[in-house]
Structures are given as structure tokens and as C-alpha cells.
Amino acid sequence: MHDIRFIRESPDAFDAGLKKRGLAPLSAELLEIDRLRRAAISESEGLQAKRKALSQRIGIAKRKGEPAEAAMAEVASLETALKQGEAEAARLDEQLTHRLEVLPNLPLDDVPEGADESGNVEIRRHGNQRNFSFPPRDHVALGEPTGEMDFAAAVKISGSRFVFLKGHLARLERALAQFMLDLHTSEGGYTEVSPPLLVRDNAAYGVGQLPKFAEDMFHTDNGYWLVPTAEVPLTNLVNDTVLDEAALPLRYTAFTPCFRSEAGAAGKDTRGLIRLHQFPKVELVSITTPEQSAVEHERMTGRAEEVLRRLGLPFRTIVLCGGDMGPASRKTYDIEVWLPGQNAYREISSCSNCGDYQARRMGARYRPKEGKGTRYLHTLNGSALAVGRTLVAILENYQNEDGSVTVPDALRSYMGGLELIPAPAAKK
């Protein structure tokens, strides 16, 4: 949500931010709605004052036994005009709110220009791509022959873009989640949370999923939304609250399934685990002050990168351009892991600083240590990591020529000491 006061004070800056998003200038149109809205409010307030004055005159006249019919008739006419004025003010307020709530956040000044992913900028790279002595397989070719990655059974029960993981792969998924949570809580200072997976409209609205992205979520027939990411319930922990600055920052992490309709992904990544309707993810959410949000953003991104470092997976970090960022973000870092089976880097984490965009929608504020009043919080979120894609990366980067997969050192204690996921032939 945008602050109309900012648009009044800095219309050129607002339009410049929209331009970086690939959108046309809107400040003039929004300010005209705002002008009409404020005029309607002012007129209503004037009518209210006049009605109050007339009511006082009527009271005095009646006490004195003087006629008051004319004043009473005027009050009656004012009531009609007042109702019309209040209705117009409410209509214009709703119109302005609707226009503001569907607009994306304004990118920070250091966000690169660009219309799509081609404008993204790589800022660092870690690890070396493995030099295989054999043609590397993709994760489907590694997982399906073992029977432990079963898409066919999932199609019968749930349809496409679902999977059954069994045996070693099911345990590997669980091990990855436990490893990530332990790392974030013990070293990262995040508090683990087990959140609801069903949320109401206000929660989805608070983080910017509604109204614009309703088609990307699953909706129940009794009014709930399945969470597309744990960001939704975790960020909403501060919905309609006022915190003391001394309590900040708040840092939360959660491991949950995520549910997405993938309405805009027809024909994309139809093979394997890359893009499913239901997938597991470890999420990070931070709540902090405006002064600290940029530092917190770098810290969060570093925590996500650390997971990949500990797992020995090559990755690169890129900063998204204005045209490729999610709508709630002011600045986003994507972390892409190397997948030998695809001979490409693929997104495994997205860490975003949302500024006060979500806080305004949620009514989330804090009391500064110094000064009076309250200020809007800043919210941040990041994947650390997408568990299914991490599993894909391990299978493809740690595969052996016979189809077996070496278990990374960091995960062996979580896998009961297992060092090798056996090849298909060894499982028969």
C-alpha cells in the first residue's frame, strides 16, 4: 500500500518508481481522486458544522418559545445533502484505496533498470561447478528409476505437478528441512514457528497476495486460502499491532508445505520437482525498523547463502531489476543454485525487503525509542531454502556414474549416518 501523502509531496519520485516497474505515470490521476475526496470530506465537515449551529439555534428558539420551523426545515435539507456528501467521500476513498492497493511497491534507487529477467545483475558467485567424467543425469532420471520419486502415482491421486517421495528421498527431504531449521535457529537467531496453513482474506491481503494474485492461490469452499508461502502467516504475526522498538528485530523461521496454482506457469517446468502445486520450503521473515531494514536484508540473504555453502552447492546471487521483482518488494536478491542436469543456474531462494508496503496494509507499527507517536514497521522475507529444489540440487551435484548419490557431509547425521543413497540396481 502506498502513502498518498508521499505522492502529494513527491509526485515525480512516485512516477519515477513506477517507470522502473515498467508502468505509466499515475501521480496526476491519483492526486485528482485525492483532491476530489478531500473536497468532499471538507464539504461534509462544513455541512456538519452548519447543522450543529442550526440545531443549537433551534434549541434556543424552543426554550424561548420562538418559532423554529424554518431552521428545522433547513436542518432536514442539510441531512440529505450531508448523506450524499458522505457517500461521495466514501466512494472516492474506496476508489483511491483500490487504485493504491493494486500498485506494486516502488523500487529502491539502487535497483537496476530492466523490464524482465534479462535486466537482472549478478553480484557474486560461490563454489565451482563439478567436472563430471560422465554425462550427468537430471533429478528425474536419478529418482524415478529407484521408485522413490513417483510422479505416476501422484497423477492418479492428485493430478499433474504433484509427487510421492519415498524411502531415502523422503528422508532426505526431512533431513534438509531439519538441517535448515537448526542452522537458522542456532546460528541465525531466528525463532522457529509452526504456523497455520489456512488463512483468512485479511492475512492474504496484508502481505499483498490479495486482491491481485487470487488466481495464484488455492481457495477453500468455506473462505480460507492455502498459504502460498509461510511468509503469509509469519508476517501477519504483527498484523494490527504496535511494538516497542526495543523488541526489534523479530526474526521467524518455519518449515511448511506451500500451495500454488501456478496459474501463469502453463508449459513451464512440467518435468520433475522444480514447479509443483505443493512443495516444502523453509521461510525466513524479519520485522524491523526503517533504519535497519537494508542491513537486515543483507543479513537474511547471507543466511540463505550459508545453507548452500554448508551443503557444498555452487550458487550465484543476483539482484533483480525493477521489472522482475515481486510486487511487494523494494529490492530482491535471488539465489540460484547450479543444476548439472539442466546445465543452468535455477532459483532456489528469493530474499526481499518490502519496506513499509506490507506494514501499511496490516496496520503494523512500532514506538520509536525517541520521539512521539508511532511509525510503520519494515518487513522482509526470504526462502532459506526451497527444500524440493535443494533436494534436486543435491541429487544432481552429488550423483555418481552408477546412479547412486553421495550424501553431503552436513546431512549425514540427519540421515542416520547414511553416506550413499544407493543406485537403482542396488535397490532391487
What global shape is seen?
Answer: elongated
The tally of helices reads 13
Q: From the alpha-carbon coordinates, what is the Rg to the nearest angstrom?
A: 28 Å
Average of pLDDT: 94
H and E order: HHHHEHEHEHEEHEHEEEHEEEHEEEHEHE
The secondary structure category is alpha+beta
CATH H-level homologous superfamily name of the largest domain: Bira Bifunctional Protein, Domain 2
Q: Give the biggest beta sheet.
A: 8 strands, mixed
Oligomer: single chain
Low-confidence stretches: none
The proportion of residues in beta strands is 15-25%
- CATH class category of the largest domain: Alpha Beta
* Helix content class: 25-40%
Strand segment count: 17
Question: How many angstroms separate the termini?
Answer: 57 Å
CATH level-3 fold name of the largest domain: BirA Bifunctional Protein, domain 2
Number of domains: 2
Strand order of the largest sheet: 1-10-11-12-15-9-8-4
Q: What is the CATH architecture term of the largest domain?
A: 2-Layer Sandwich
What does this structure look like?
This protein has 428 residues and is α+β, with helices and mostly antiparallel strands. The protein folds into two domains: 4-101, Serine-tRNA synthetase, tRNA binding domain (Helix Hairpins, Orthogonal Bundle), CATH 1.10.287.40; 117-427, Bira Bifunctional Protein, Domain 2 (BirA Bifunctional Protein, domain 2), CATH 3.30.930.10. The protein contains 13 helices and 17 strands. The chain has an eight-stranded mixed sheet. A hairpin with a 4-residue loop joins β11 and β12 (344-353). It is elongated and about 105 Å long. The mean pLDDT is 94.
